[in-house]
Amino acid sequence: MNMRYVPAVVTALSVSVVPAPQVRADSGWAFLGGIIAGSVVAHNAATLAARQEMYDREATASYVRQQRALMDPPPATAVMPDPAVSSRDADVQAALSFFGYAVGRVDGVLGRQSRAAIAQFQQDMGWTATGTLGVQEEAFLIDAHQRGEAALTVPPYNEIVASQGRKGLLEAFRREELGQPVGGGQGGLIAEILPAGDASQPVHVLASTEPGKGSMAAFCKVTAQRTEANGGTVQPGPEIDMPQAMGEQFCWARRFAIGDTALVESSIPPLSPEQLAADCGSVTGIMAPFVAQLERETPRRIIAQIKSAQKESGERREMVSLAARLCLGTAYRIEDPDMALGAALLVTAMGQIGYGEMVSHHLRQGFGTAPAGSLAIEPWMDLALQSPEGTEALGQNLLRLGVLRQSLES
After folding, report:
1. How many domains are there within the chain?
2. Does 341 map to a domain?
3. What is the domain extent for residue 41?
4. Long-range contacts of 163-166, Cβ-Cβ distance < 8 Å, separation of 24 or more
5. pTM higher than 0.90
6. Which of 131, 187, 237, 385 could make a disulfide contact with 115, Cβ separation 3.0–4.6 Å?
7. What is the pLDDT of residues 329-360, one digit of tens each?
8. In this structure, is residue 246 part of a structural domain?
9. Residue 198 contacts by C-beta under 8 Å, 6 or more apart in sequence?
């Protein structure tokens, strides 16, 4: 086996479970096991597991800090610094410094130099340069820092860093969020649908950004603007805007999956974005027969069929799961909803049931499939909520889980 660039030639596969769909022998299962097994030696796999645990903790802490910032009222007369605010501001300073903005000392105090760095960052990202970060601006910066740490050695990000420095990496993440090619230039629908200026003004959404009818990045950008206009993310409560709440949760999980893919990429030999996108295309073909059953079969039956197909393929379950995670974030980066839904379904079937949340989101929003009814959506969300501690996937935490649980009660 070529130990540097896999996938391998496809292993013959047939499925005998009834009524499991027949899967062609050339459908690409060997890629799913080979891309990881042929690239990561045992000690790298252990390192990846440790880094994944750290990444999960950091992402969860970032989300909790954002929510606390929204819920905590401003102090009337602050005599002592709030440790949570100091920690959050230190994270902002560290992130700005990572991307080349001069903040001075990282001490959790946003003084004149830090405010000037924030204003420059806002200007570079196309936002109004106020020197004070909005909730979504801060979330983007902190998440970009977490992604950046993992992406420094991963194509094409390493090439961007080599030619443009880390600020170029930040700008690449911003282009991804806007649905534009990482290499620059216009792409996606953002330029046509998103007005510049005050996020508190009403957002006029064209049909192309409605669920299931366009760019997932565009949908998430519109969702983020509504979040900003609302003064923060939707919290659990007696009456909540469920469409907005679930849009926010989809977009948070999507962003987490992109960062998770960068983490996996950092532990395997480099693959070009074109090669990775082409190879991950096998996920779409493999999962298509199972995706077709999402509206008429239970999660238990679909998962049983996928597990049977994986066993017949001879590929190790943990390797298939890791490769599917690699392809999930890749799909979101290249705006391929079919691949994203297939990868999320495959990771879920391989045992990380927290990813059932993403299957549910895709069914709700209509990305990669026609928008489904509650009878199809809710069982996948219910499965995700059975995940131990709710933290094994997609940055799930108590606040997010509260919103997700409420979606089953509405």
Report:
1. 1
2. yes
3. 29-45+267-409
4. 165/100, 166/98, 166/99, 166/100
5. no
6. 131
7. 999 988 899 999 999 999 999 999 999 999 99
8. no
9. none
